[in-house]
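WARN  no MSA supplied for this record, continuing single-sequence
INFO  ligand: magnesium ion
INFO  echoing inputs
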Amino acid sequence: MYYDMQQDIEEVLADEKTLAEICDRLAAEITKDYRDSQKDLVFVVILKGSMHFASDLIRRIELPCEMEFMKVSSYGASTTTSGFIQVHLDLKRDVRDADVIVIEDIIDSGRTLEKLSHLLADRGANSVRFCTLLDKPERRQVKLDADYVGMNIPDAFVVGYGLDYNEKYRNIPYVGILKPAVYQK
Ligand code: IMP
Ligand code: MG
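INFO  complex generated
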């Protein structure tokens, strides 16, 4: 059963210290930006990939706030304009009039968050912003910019700190590039 997952990592992109610094910086920015808001602040954590990031980030927020969870997937290229999104697990509270901050692990094509932004706007949120740990701007297929970005990364498949390949590697404590040999075999 024992298997050293590190042997499948080509390069570390963000070690534990870097991840902690990212969370410190983003939490300070968010705390400053929402300090004077009179609305409920609701973090929408997108499962499963952003679980570690959300946990570390939200613990550093120095404001009253709530946590909600969603699990979504967006359909492929043919549905970009229809804005269709499949919701596997939905919010438990009404976000009408709330300030929503969506927490994502990574933005790739941007389709998932683009569709989610429409869905949350339709539900009457006062504001919707996006906070992502990682961003691959080169891969973008729709116009979407996150409001809070931990780190821009090159176009490579990464795992760790919540991000998976076939549901594995989420428990690696850092973010690293997965060796292509792992998914090419
Ligand atoms: P988008 O709709 O193309 O922006 O898809 C973003 C989703 O794809 C993320 O929430 C991840 O689940 C997944 N994803 C994209 N790139 C990677 C990666 O490099 N490693 C792991 N998951 C990824
Ligand atoms: Mg995934």
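The radius of gyration is 17 Å.
INFO  checksum written, moving to next record
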